[in-house]
Specification:
Layout: H1 21-32, H2 35-38, H3 40-77, H4 83-91, H5 94-126, H6 132-149, H7 151-180, H8 205-219, H9 225-229, H10 236-245, H11 247-265, H12 282-290, H13 295-327, H14 345-360, H15 368-401, H16 418-432, H17 446-453, H18 455-470
Helix pairs in contact: 1-7, 1-10, 3-8, 3-10, 3-11, 3-15, 3-16, 4-5, 4-15, 5-6, 5-13, 5-14, 5-15, 5-18, 6-7, 6-13, 7-11, 7-12, 7-13, 12-13, 13-14, 15-16, 15-18
Length: about 475
């Protein structure tokens, strides 16, 4: 491990522990609410019926809950901005930690590019003749400012971004329930009528539900952000478990109730549900049915907030991961340097530069390069989840093998070892089944296979490259590093 230059007091540079309980909870909460709920939920209901969509999102929700309890146990015990990269390095194999760290950094750096592209499209809804470059510069300036000021400014911005999304979903659910029972909207109660029309509620059978099951996984990516924030939380032993405990209930509230409400109010046979146009998103359709004339503009503004939140969080998470990689000697030392405000400024700037370069790639070759980058990024999130589940399984086994009392853990994951094993299995199914349709035709669609699964060979190359170079092996349970810096 390389040595990081110390300051005059002889201490290594440290991040500022300025994130409070409310910040952590809302950052994790905001990570699950985005276009997956506001836009993609309509397509999920149309393709698998309301019953199929509910089942798929519920199963993924349960998996994510177990995953977050696993991450929460490790983060409360050993808070680190490197999160699962650090845990894999200490509890599994340094090569795995190296690969997971770079994999996750890349994931969010490319996500920033996707949000840059999306924001321009959103703004053109109101200003069709405006310059895309203008909105791109404004978006970059906003997320860079929030991240450069201090970690507290990032936490505050995410708190309010998430609050807007949370308030929208709560209002949507309340309004929908009143409409379902005929109290609002001036129409008779609809009850479960739309649930059972045609071949509902499970339209398309098992394969349709399985397809939504895969897509639902993308909607929940971002919940693992609470692990990254642990290194800058003022009381991780208390605040991380508190955030984890709310995961299950918010999944129930925001996804299950919202999808159930959409399924009751809008027939899944309505072709508008398949559209990705904000003007006909399921949320817009319900608000419009209530008679809100500016429903489309309202949802457009809220989705813009979701984009800003995703870009803001992406820049934060990836810069902290790059900083930890540099501290651990897995990246150039310059990225371990902090500003006076405790911000990893060089890691921040490189991440944003990569995001901007990836965005520029969308203008060449009809966006082919950009789409390849985006597809590789999508797989990266699931690889990170696999790493979390496996690292936690090894952590608990090492903890017990070294004779430590699990009662002393600040937070204990639920139903161990079932939780991490279940999460690992479900994630593996999602990864393998990512583009199962490429194998079901008369011949294998090799182009589709390559585009969908490109993230896997990239990750394996990182893992094996480091393993071969440094000749690392899986760490014996008795030798796993469980020491916590006080």
């Amino acid at each position: 491990m390389s040595e990081i230059k110390v300051n005059q007091l002889g201490k290594a540079p440290e991040l500022k522990k300025e994130l409070k309980s409310r910040h952590i909870t809302m950052i994790s909460l905001g990570g699950t609410i985005g276009t997956g709920l506001f836009l993609a939920s309509g397509g999920a209901i149309a393709q698998a019926g309301p019953g199929g969509a509910l089942l798929a999102y519920a199963l993924i929700g349960i998996m994510v809950y177990f995953l977050m309890t696993s991450l929460g146990e490790m983060a409360a015990y050993m808070p680190s901005s490197g999160s699962f990269s650090t845990y894999a390095t200490k509890f599994v194999d340094p090569a795995l930690g190296f690969a997971l760290g770079w994999n996750y950094w890349y994931n969010w750096a490319i996500t920033i590019a996707a949000e840059i592209a999306a924001v321009s499209l959103i703004m053109k809804y109101w200003f069709p003749d405006s310059s895309s470059a203008l909105w791109t510069v404004i978006f970059i300036a906003i997320i860079l400012t929030f991240n450069l000021l201090s970690v507290k400014s990032y936490g505050e911005s995410e708190y309010w971004f998430a609050m807007i999304k949370v308030a929208t979903v709560i209002v949507f659910i309340i309004v929908s329930l009143l409409m379902i029972f005929g109290i609002l909207g001036g129409q008779a109660p609809v009850g479960f009528t739309n649930f059972f029309i045609s071949d509902g509620p499970f339209h398309g059978g098992f394969l349709a539900t399985f397809g939504i099951f895969l897509a639902a996984g993308f909607s929940f990516q971002g919940t693992e952000l609470l692990g990254i924030t642990a290194g800058e939380t003022d009381d991780p032993g208390k605040n991380i478990p508190k955030a984890v405990k709310s995961v299950f209930w918010r999944i129930i509230l925001f996804y299950i109730l919202a999808i159930a409400a959409i399924g009751m109010l809008i027939p899944f046979t309505d072709s508008r549900l398949l559209s990705e146009d904000i003007a006909v998103s399921p949320f817009t359709l319900v608000f419009d049915r209530l008679g809100i004339a500016f429903a489309a503009s309202l949802m457009n503004a809220i989705i813009l907030t979701a984009m800003l939140s995703a870009g803001n969080s992406g820049l934060y998470a990836s810069s902290r991961m790059l900083w930890q990689l540099a501290v651990d000697g897995h990246a150039p030392k310059i990225f371990a340097k902090l500003s006076r405000r405790g911000i990893p400024i060089y890691a921040l700037l490189l991440t944003l530069a990569v995001g901007c370069l990836a965005f520029l790639a969308s203008f060449f070759g009809d966006g082919v390069v950009y789409m390849w980058l985006l597809n590789a990024s999508g797989m990266s999130g699931f690889i990170a989840w696999l790493g979390i589940a496996f690292s936690h399984y090894r952590f608990r086994r090492a903890y017990e093998a070294q004779g430590l009392d699990t009662k002393l853990l600040p937070y204990k994951a639920k139903l161990y070892p079932f939780g991490p094993l279940f999460a690992f299995t479900v994630c593996m199914i999602v990864v393998i089944g990512q583009n199962y349709t490429a194998f079901t035709g008369d011949s294998i669609d090799w182009s589709g296979v390559l585009v969908s699964y490109i993230g896997i060979p990239l990750f394996i190359a990182l893992w094996l490259g480091y393993k071969i170079k440094h000749k690392t092996k899986m760490i014996p349970l008795e030798k796993c590093d469980l020491k916590v810096d006080k």
